[in-house]
Amino acid sequence: MSPNRPDIGEVQLPGMADITQPVRDLSSRNAFARAVTPEYWGLDSSQYVDIDSHMLDLAAPANLRESLIDVPKGSQFAVSYIPGQESRPVFIALTPTEYSLVVRHVPALAMAAISHTLASRRGRKNYTTDIKAATRSGVYALENRKKAMETYLRDTLERDTALLNRLAEAAKHPGYWRMPESDMRIGLSWVLESVFGDMLTAIRYQRQWTPEQESLAKRTIEKRLFFERQRNQHIQNWRDMFSLDLEYIGNKEALFKDRIWKAGKTIAQKNDSKEK
């Protein structure tokens, strides 16, 4: 779990604390179609009248994707990896927290720790001992970052993927596929605030939005998800957002797994060199 991210069940839509929610049996089962109505969350359409059709089009998943997956090289908080079937690197936009966790270049991290240790021992004559100590520091630095990446992959990315898959399945059968009331409410709150929220944070840095622009984008997405109700268009909008975020998080999972594997390989190589 990210240190700057609330845990699941600790989030709610803006203003929900000020709304008197109807008393519900949290052990009952609820259909997806009912859970994505404005009334269910106490949302008021008058709060979204400033959002026009052009803004709604700009917030379509296809337009958001270009600032998340395969972004230009050199983009802020973007890290590359080479997907299994590709021959070129693909740059993935990350949040600042994710960027601080993932190792951009594994050998460089190890060498930086080794160089720092050797520099601190300058002037000493026991060079063999110093090299072994420096190698240990490189391994230690990699082990710590590898553990942090594994924790984020397991506790955040993989958990979010499992939740998105469950809700995406519910959205395929919105009137029939039912979940316990508590699971539906907590799950949708988590996706809206934290999962979609992380996605918008990554886009904010790609497009250099102000906080106000990010807030407007968030409200625009909410209008697409709750108020575009002609022929149940809002249901399709939910499906499209789930699909986008599953693709985006899938790429982040692949990126983290790539760096975890490379860190493990480098650690093994450094340990082998220590034994020789």
Structural commentary:
The protein has 276 residues and is mainly alpha-helical. It has one domain. It contains ten helices and four strands. The strands form two sheets. It has a two-stranded antiparallel sheet with strand order 1-4. It has a two-stranded antiparallel ribbon with strand order 2-3. A hairpin with an 8-residue loop joins strand 2 and strand 3. The protein starts with 28 loop residues before the first strand and ends with a helix.
| Low confidence ranges | 13-23
Q: What count of domains describes the coordinates? A: 1
**Major sheet, described briefly?**
2 strands, antiparallel
Shape: globular
Work out the helix count.
10
Q: Pairing-aware structural class of the strands and helices?
A: mainly alpha
The number of E-state strands comes to 4
Radius of gyration: 23 Å
Tell me the distance between the termini: 38 Å
* N-to-C SSE string, H for helix and E for strand: EHHHHEEHHHEHHH
For the biggest β-sheet, the strand order reads 1-4
Beta-strand portion reads 5-15%
**Would you tell me the overall average pLDDT?**
84
Helical content band: 55-70%
